[in-house]
Amino acid sequence: MAQSLVCADTVSRVSSVLNRNTRQFGKKHLFDQDEETCWNSDQGPSQWVILEFPRRVRVSQLQIQFQGGFSSRRGCLEGSQRSEALGKIVDFYPEDNNSIQISYPGLWVGVVCASKSCRLCVASRPAFLHL
To answer: Is the pTM of this model over 0.90?
Structure first.
């Protein structure tokens, strides 16, 4: 099993929070390992999570969990590869269920996110998400 790149020094930002209620729906719930909580975004055409790591990281796998019925049909991972601007690295297509979804290494062949910042984008639905 892959080890999480998220640590105590990782800074996270999100595009929005449902009803601006950070206590109940905020980004802290992305990584709390509690099945009863998750980050809830507000409405909008695209929702995202930015992770700023204390050092450069190499992404080899993505584990994501949506609340059933609220999965995006398409997502992408962006990162900076030795530059300041974030650019698309890979697209992914999550299933619309509440199971933990793991993008297997085959998806990541040739993918390098040698970056301190990565952005996970999901399109056209509010997100109810655990990373």
So the answer is: no
